[in-house]
Amino acid sequence: MECNIARQVITARDIQLFFGKGQRMSYKMIADMRKHYNKKRHQPVTIDEFCNYYNVKRVDLYNAIILGTKPKENKK
Fold it and tell me: d(Cα 42, Cα 18) in Å, to the nearest integer?
């Protein structure tokens, strides 16, 4: 079951949703990945690079991104 999302770049908010980390730690994790992949500061980190670096399944990450962006339902 492959989920498709329109973008290919990981954001700090995605990392926050997936790992439950804070904003600053999420940016640090992106910086560490950029250093590992020899990228410059303006170059984005892709979702594939993130999954390879942290050894996570792409489907699990997509599910976390999709569930995290849906509006919360109002409970009555």
Answer: 23
